[in-house]
Amino acid sequence: MSKKCIITVLTALLVMALFLSGGTNVTAAAKRVSLSHTSVTLEKGENIQLELKNSDAKKVKWKSGNKSIATVKAGVVKAKKAGKTTIAAIYGGKKYKCRVTVKMNKQSGSTDFDLDSKTVTLNSGYEMPIIGLGTWTLSNEEAENSVYNALKTGMRLIDTARYYDCEKGVGKGLKKAINEGLVKREDVFITSKIYTDTYKSSVKEIDNSLKDLDVSYVDLMLIHEPGSDDKAVYKALEEAVEQGKVRSIGISNYYTKDALDEVLSFANITPAIIQNENHIYYQNEKLKKYAKKYGIVIESWYPFGGRGHTDENFNNETIAQLAKKYKKSSAQVILRWHLQAGYIAIPGSSNAKHIAENYDIFDFELSEEDMKKINSCDRQKRYEVW
Ligand SMILES: NC(=O)c1ccc[n+]([C@@H]2O[C@H](COP(=O)([O-])OP(=O)(O)OC[C@H]3O[C@@H](n4cnc5c(N)ncnc54)[C@H](OP(=O)(O)O)[C@@H]3O)[C@@H](O)[C@H]2O)c1
After folding, report:
1. Was domain 4-104 assigned CATH 3.40.50.300?
2. How large is the average pLDDT for residues 12-35?
3. Beta-carbon neighbour count of residue 193 at 10 Å?
4. Phi and psi of 30, rounded to 5°?
5. pLDDT, tens digit, for every residue of 72-91?
6. Residues 6+ apart with CB under 8 A from 374
7. Nearest CA, atom 19, ligand 1
8. Whose CA is nearest to atom 15 of ligand 1?
9. φ, ψ dihedrals at 60, nearest 5°
10. Cβ atoms of 347 and 335 closer than 8 Å
11. Cβ of 358 below 6 Å from ligand 1
């Protein structure tokens, strides 16, 4: 065995020993690592805690190269899904790699939606609600009211962005609902987006977002659209995950396999979400299928076609007929189609009645035949070009 190999095994064993010693001997906080991580930076004295959820795990093996260095029985760690990953630890200024293999009794962690809990489990291990509120074009005051009304009505997903300039209002609406005992912070899934091109400005904007939203973490942070140095922006997001400021990472306005592949080529944490323009006239099935391979879920912006185009969507003949048939509004039929097709939807609204209507979509189900009818409305027509 080479010297480097011995050091690798010893270091991995040390890390493992720290891990196994749990809370008794190790006082330093554990670095939390989910299966979507492939690398983590350790400070001296830190240990790794695999943050995996499903107790179906038979065993987790830590390997260095092909050599198994330790086995942890189920119960010590909880695994979310089967798979292999490599943990590269920078320890004492040197870089080491550990291969982690999780074996499970049954597969889980798919991109399938749970329409009972109204959530999907992301590849990051976190649960994300599948229907929520969009806040684009809302003023701070409107955002505050809409967020409060959304939470009051039962919605638990809020979508905002640095660019929308209403994060302060979103934060106030959230605080109001928390203060009234309607929700706790951890019940609500907050998404924001950064619009930057450099590592430095990304770090700053993530902090600015937390400050304006008045939260200690966001559940999901997206790159708002492809830029000149996505690799640097993504690195800032990955560091924010390690620091606990961001839970899951996503990308927005990436429409092709090539665009996604580019991100995957430098990502250490696989994106959990792609948020794109997506509605009855623009359905990107191809990307959805490809993204699924990586456990990436597609989220629809402009679920109704966006302001100025809602009539065209609501009055579509198929949609209007189905609204009559199911005794629901066109908006509800469209949202139900998004969810049954596997798209998270975030309809924007400043109207409390509309918000309640948009959440009232769990008492009916579109038949397979009717789903196909809406699928055939696709014209590959996007309203926006960004
Ligand atoms: N990542 C990106 O680049 C990007 C781009 C655009 C949007 N987004 C996100 O996606 C969200 C959704 O997009 P969007 O808000 O622009 O467009 P949208 O959700 O397709 O449509 C919003 C329009 O629908 C109306 N509406 C909502 N619920 C209704 C109902 N039940 N009945 C009748 N009308 C209803 C709203 O009016 P009222 O206010 O009167 O209800 C508003 O005029 C945004 O808010 C934003 O969070 C992301």
Report:
1. no
2. 40
3. 25
4. -80, 140
5. 332 233 344 455 555 555 54
6. 280, 318, 319, 322, 333, 334, 337, 341, 366
7. 347
8. 348
9. -115, 125
10. yes
11. yes
Write out pLDDT tens, residues 10-22.
444 434 433 333 3
Centre of ligand 1 to C-alpha 288, Å, is 21
pLDDT digits (tens, 9 = 90+) for 175-232: 999 999 999 999 999 999 999 999 999 999 999 999 999 999 999 999 999 999 999 9
Residue 163 among the catalytic residues: no
CATH number listed for the domain at residues 113-375: 3.20.20.100
Which of left, alpha, beta for 344 (phi over 0: left; psi -120 to 50: alpha)? Answer: beta
Query: 29 CA to middle of ligand 1, Å?
Result: 42
Nearest atom within ligand 1 for CA of residue 308: 43
Q: Is 185 in the pocket of ligand 1 (CB under 6 A)?
A: no
* Residue 254 near ligand 1, beta carbon < 6 Å: no
The residue ranges of every structural domain in the chain are: 4-104, 113-375
Q: Catalytic residue among 91, 148, 164, 282, which?
A: 164
Cα-based distances in Å from 203 to 213, 218, 223, 227, 386: 16, 14, 12, 16, 24
